[in-house]
Amino acid sequence: MSFSLSEQNDTIIALATPQGVGAIAVIRLSGKDAIQLTNEVFFGKNLEKQESHTIHFGTIRDGDKIIDEVLVSLFIAPKSFTKENVVEISTHGSSYIINQVLKLFIRKGARPAKPGEFTQRAFLNGQFDLAQAEAVADLIHADSETSHQAALSQMRGGFSSEIQELRSRLIHFASMIELELDFSEEDVEFASREELRTLVERLLRVVEELILSFDLGNVIKNGVPTVIAGKPNAGKSTLLNALLNEEKAIVSEIAGTTRDFIEDEINIGGVIFRFIDTAGLRETTDTIEAIGVSRTQEKMKSASLIIYLFDLGDTDLVEINRDVNKLENQGVPFLKVANKIDKANSLLVNELKEKHPDTIFISAGQKENLEELKSRILVLVNLDKFRTGNTVVTNVRHYDSLVKTRESLLDILSGLDNEVTNDFVAMDIRRSLHFLGEITGEITTDDLLENIFRNFCIGK
Ligand SMILES: Nc1nc2c(ncn2[C@@H]2O[C@H](COP(=O)(O)OP(=O)(O)OP(=O)(O)O)[C@@H](O)[C@H]2O)c(=O)[nH]1
Ligand SMILES: [Mg+2]
Q: pTM (2 decimals)?
């Protein structure tokens, strides 16, 4: 994707609603000639004489032929998403009509938009910064309440404004230090080293918090990895199926049924969880099952949450104590879930209630008490901070720049500690400024922009 000026002047067109048949479809145009072009094929009113933010009924015609009755919405520059003239044409949602309208406009001089080109223009025309533009893509793809919240807060400025403010204060120091370089013989100090240190330490705290939030951000975007682990025949696959409401995993009374892991997404209370059903944990001489067991152990290490499932009819307290001990040492949050309450011996149930009062008793087979399990899962992952609008980094590019920023900020600090000369401090500050600027788009390269907007869909 290039950024030549002539391309920027084109009037672009694309279907803004999904492909396929719907009640209505919206075709969007943006560019200097968007209104004039529409006026050439629209019959009803003179669109060039209308106010911004108005809607007009009429027909789209190709010569004498009426293509459709439509509604046309006008957004006159700069009061539009792209800050250019924008026209949105609502047609009936048939693919025949959509194609006829698109073809007509292209014949009249509009150009089909490239993926993300509307958002790209909005960015280039200063509608928002790069981090916000990327949030538009995240917002479109968000499929749960929490990922939607994270994208929305980022699009509204989220951490951009915080970073921009600190960056502009760092620019101030940079210019003071460059000034000192000009006066180097006179040994003056325009920039207080102590104030610089305080600012860098503050920036470092913000950057580190954002880096930390990335793990959680990823979890929101991709689902909380949740492993169901336990002995063969505990009912792990039955539980996965019950939570999914479908027969995804094979269930049988033969121990060692599941040999590889099976995963699927489940939305619990607006949060996406990625549930992973695993091979039952036991010593085994079967090679394939052994591979499955070692994969289970790997999955457990990288999980955000483990559901430790055991069969009430086939486990004793000694065994449970041993497993719980192991899990506690692993450091991954876990829930103790006792299965097959429908055929439990009451002795073990009573022992558990005393020794492990946080045990959740369920029957996966009869779908009993699954609601309690779900609510305990939600409490354990505690994603409340995202609902309150805290900033979360979900984007790998931002994460990369943040990590590089942290390194260069640490370099400034160690430079101050070692009383290095001004030109070194100035160099480290410039490096920090560069990486911070990469996040908000104040520093960009064509490669970077191309990469980002390519991930959008056409019409966005
Ligand atoms: N009575 C009763 N039986 C159950 C319950 N949940 C599962 N089962 C039975 O327990 C047996 C084992 O269930 P699975 O879900 O295959 O167990 P698993 O933990 O996936 O076993 P592996 O894949 O071999 O590790 C099956 O016969 C299930 O029907 C339950 O709540 N009550
Ligand atoms: Mg299984």
A: 0.56
